[in-house]
Amino acid sequence: MSRVAGAADAADARRRLGEALGALRRIIGSRRLDRINAERSQVAIGFAAFAVLGKVIDDGPLRMSDLAEAGRVHPAALTRQVQALEAEGYIERSPDPTDGRAAVVRVTPTGLVAHRRVQAANDAIMAEQLADWSIEELAHLVDQLERLIVDLRTAPQSRQRRREP
Fold it and tell me: Hey, how many other C-beta atoms are within 10 angstroms of the C-beta on 55?
């Protein structure tokens, strides 16, 4: 294969990847999926709020600024998600004991239950949609997606230094 053909094939693969990622983003962010999940879990929170709640469960209690950084969320968007979760009683905010200007976010018992229910509904939906996939296919996909995420978050010059002896 010529260099030109190889470069064209690589460009086509990157274009297809971009399209696939766009389609995946639209699916994950769809109101329809949120409605299906809310119906199954009996918990009406969207994907973004679910991710914030999960981060608070995994890493909390957290200051809002630390939660924004850990979740890679813009602070204004995070504030909206936290307010929605707080209104449902899934998390609570309190003043940071070391800095009264900052707030600390922690999960409530209701939030733990809600997160488990949404997680179970997500798992059931994925199991149905991916019923024809083998465990090996799923594991390979996850490995590749994790590699993609690391590479997309790492500056190209940093990756180059990792490869050098």
Answer: 21
Strands (E), the chain: 62-63, 91-96, 99-107
Domain contains 27:
yes
DSSP 61: S
Burial class of residue 41 (count of CB atoms within 10 Å of its CB; 0-12, 13-18, 19+): buried
Number of Cβ within a 10 Å radius of residue 48 = 18
CATH number, domain containing residue 122: 1.10.10.10
What span, in angstroms and rounded, lies between the C-alpha atoms of 143 and 124? 21
Q: How many domains does the chain have?
A: 1
3-class SS shares of the chain: helix, strand, coil, % to 5: 70, 10, 20
Q: Over the stretch 42-82, which tens digit does the pLDDT of each residue have?
A: 998 888 889 999 999 999 899 988 999 888 888 888 989 99
